[in-house]
Amino acid sequence: MAAKNGGRWNHNIHYHPRILRAIPAGAQHALDVGCGEGMLTRDLRRTIPHVTGIDLHAPSITQAREHQNNVAQSLEHPSDIDYVLSDFLTHPFEPASFDFIASVATLHHMDAATGLARMRDLLRPGGVLAIIGLARSTMPNDLPRDLAGIALGITHRATKGHWEHPSPIVWPPPLTYPQMRSLATKTLPGSRYRRHLLLRYTITWRKPRN
């Protein structure tokens, strides 16, 4: 499934299709962790009937709600995405209450081990977790890869432009790529970790049914 991003592009949006392709068949309830102004949340809603977006950044949640209200008025039906201004780590979600959880460029804003464990616990058995994340490069080993990624990013910006999200930025990420891979392996046994050229990694994991 292609993301409906309104012509916007940045390093995170580039990998949104990987999130959307990970949605399990029949998913009814989804959570977008660190939803920002709701671009991915809205894409999830095109497939999943009940979607919640959560973020700590009040201006982003305000934008998300305003967009949803405008759409609801134009289509003459009530908003059907639940945008929550709260801390994902402490918000009182019911355990095992989501079929699909997505997280884009959010995990490095929190303690990653705590965040992964929280996502794991909120998934229903058989549910899928899909993460796009940032990690810290180690020099000089990562220099060739990073330079290639920067060159590719410049090419994409020249042809697609660049959209700057309104959410806060944390830089540098606290964990390195190998540390994130090790943490994913430990916390989410059987997960698939992949490092990508545009300075991102992805983690996908299906929660066992037993």
From TrEMBL:
Classification via Gene3D superfamilies: Vaccinia Virus protein VP39
Domain spans labelled Methyltransferase type: 31-131
Signal peptide (residue range): none
Molecular functions per Gene Ontology: 2-polyprenyl-6-hydroxyphenol methylase activity; 3-demethylubiquinol 3-O-methyltransferase activity
Superkingdom per UniProt: Bacteria
Keywords from the UniProt entry: Methyltransferase, Transferase
Enzyme class: transferase
Transferase as UniProt keyword: yes
Pfam families noted in UniProt: Methyltransf_11 (PF08241)
Example GO biological process: methylation
Enzyme Commission number(s): 2.1.1.222, 2.1.1.64
Family note: Belongs to the methyltransferase superfamily.
Name by which UniProt lists this protein: Class I SAM-dependent methyltransferase
Organism expressing this protein natively: Sphaerisporangium corydalis
